[in-house]
Amino acid sequence: MSSTxxxxxxxxxxxxxxxxxxxxxxxxxxxxxxxxxxxxxxKASAAALEGLPGGPRGYQVLxxxxxxxxxxxxxxxxxxxxxxTVMTYLLDDLEKAELVQRxxxxxxxxxxxxxxxxxxxxxxxELERRLxxxxxxxxxILDESERASFRMLLQRVAMKANAIDPLHNxxxxxxxxxxxxx
Length: 182
Hints:
- The protein is mainly alpha-helical.
- It contains 8 helices and 3 strands.
- It has a 3-stranded antiparallel β-sheet with strand order 1-3-2.
- A hairpin with a 2-residue loop joins β2 (about 100-105) and β3 (about 110-115).
- α2 packs antiparallel against α6.
- It is elongated, with a radius of gyration of 21 Å.
């Protein structure tokens, strides 16, 4: 009887070698696996978003305003969990790059709506193409049905984790951690 699981045997067949020692390999640890996959995805997606003002946050602004339509600056900041001061600087940079415009809100002349420009729409299409290529590279060892299952299962776990311990605002979290270190 073999001590190799069917999953490890399938991984070996696809070019992934398990560790050689007989003890439980670090590769079997959930934390290690999540960390490695996250690190690879974070590096590859950062490269895919290189040159975009605000990087991932800039992408979120473009993607949200394209899919959901114009949004008030404060509403967008709240939805994306971005501190409103940080959002102001981010929008300044995106506006300088001619990717978004701030337009007066007809319902409230004091407020501004964030609207993607034509250049912003084109940039978003290119960024989405790059991010799909990044996902293909990171998940390349999985076939299409495995990718769909992985995404579905990961989303379920993430939604449950977020329901238990939601991250409301990354800036607030960082400030709380800094205060705890004092």
